[in-house]
Amino acid sequence: MTTSESKLLVGIDIGGTKTAVLLSAEPPQVIARREFPTRPEQGPQRALELIKSGIREMLAEHGACEQSIARLGVSCGGPLDRIKGIIQSPPNLPTWDDVPIKAILEEAFHAECLIENDANAGAVAEHRFGAGKGSQNMVFLTMGTGLGAGVITDGRLYRGTNDLAGEVGHLRLTRTGPVGHNKKGSAEGWASGGGMAQVAQQAVAAAIKKKRPTRLSKLYRSGSPITAKDIGAAARQGDKVALEVLESTGEKLGEVLAILVDLLNPDRIVIGGLAMRLGDLLLEPARRVIAREALELPAKTCQVIPAELGESIGDAAALCIAMRI
Q1: Does residue 115 sit in the same domain as residue 218?
Q2: S-S: 215 plus which of 181, 234, 254, 273, CB 3.0-4.6 Å?
Q3: Kindly report the CA angle at 279 between 275 and 285, in degrees rounded to 5?
């Protein structure tokens, strides 16, 4: 069957930094892809026009018409109204205030458009195509600037009453501490890239005061923000302060995972973002805390592993939505 004769799925992955648009006849394989900066400060209209023009260009390049689209899937950070298909000012898209993207794309392409929270979509993608394959009960953590989760129970996505299941970043671990999810001492504050950066700022300041050497001191003194990427790079070069920050972040991550192990009894926890890039530097401390804090049998049963789909997870997630997750 040729591309023009087959029914195609369109995936749209909208992030605060970039947006990707892709075509697939058989997910997760991609036959065409476009990517552009989202630039949320310019509002949604520019990005919406680029999404529509990108889809039309890819169809034309592959000799397909708009009637060949079976379904469109949009992956985006919340909050959003999944049923009505409205993006409701996510933190990374503050100017996207009640954007009816489902209606906009259905009018443009006369095909059904579905929308889903990116953490939920990522969970389904890893479960179908990545590190979660074969598991029945899985938690997927998006460990990037923030911390979110998607939950698979008995092989199906669990959304909750208000489509808000999996907001683990909002759990409070301590009464004070780094801020995440607008809450001091939250799981996101302690166990995310943004939280790790906050911890590092304090750790480097203390190291300078005590005249402890660290590769991060130059960044700190310049006034530049210390990022998770900077911390990881320094840790790989043996920087003791950076390694201590990763150890403490991994331990706090372990506290979050121990709660999930006791509460949900998953057979697998799959972690994206920082866990993919930093591996055991983060995960070994987390596993030690799980072994200490969680119930023995669920802790032994549960694997804690990095996500497998890597940088292509957004593409696979958007296609999973188009497949009707």
Answers
A1: no
A2: 234
A3: 90
Structure tokens at 117: 């929270």
Q: Are residues 183 and 42 in the same domain?
A: no
Could you tell me the pLDDT band of residue 6, with boundaries at 50, 70 and 90? low
Residue with tokens 């749209």: 12
Domain holding 95, by residue range, is 8-122+313-322
Residue 142 and residue 260 in one domain = yes
Does 109 share its domain with 138? no
CATH number of the domain that residue 225 is part of: 3.30.420.40
Kindly report the average pLDDT of the chain as a whole number: 94
Do 287 and 141 share a structural domain? yes
Residues 224 and 302 in one domain: yes
Predicted local confidence at residue 92, as pLDDT: 83
Q: Is the peptide bond before 37 cis (omega within 30 degrees of 0)?
A: no
Look at residues 243, 253, 246, 244 and name the one whose alpha carbon lies nearest to residue 188.
Answer: 253
Q: Judge whether residue 280 has pLDDT over 60.
A: yes
How many structural domains are present in the chain?
A: 2
- What's the pLDDT tens digit per position in 57-95? 999 999 999 999 999 999 998 889 999 999 999 888 999
Cα dihedral 189, 194, 199, 203 in deg (nearest 10): 180
Q: Pull the structure tokens for residue 98.
A: 């009640």
Strands 112-117 and 69-76: what pairing? parallel
- 61/244 Cα distance (integer angstroms): 51
Strands 179-180, 183-184: pairing is: antiparallel
Do 89 and 155 lie in one domain? The reply is: no
DSSP assignments along 209-222, one per residue = HTT---TTHHHHHH
The 10s digit of each residue's pLDDT in 115-171 is 999 999 999 999 999 999 999 999 999 998 889 999 999 999 999 998 889 999 999
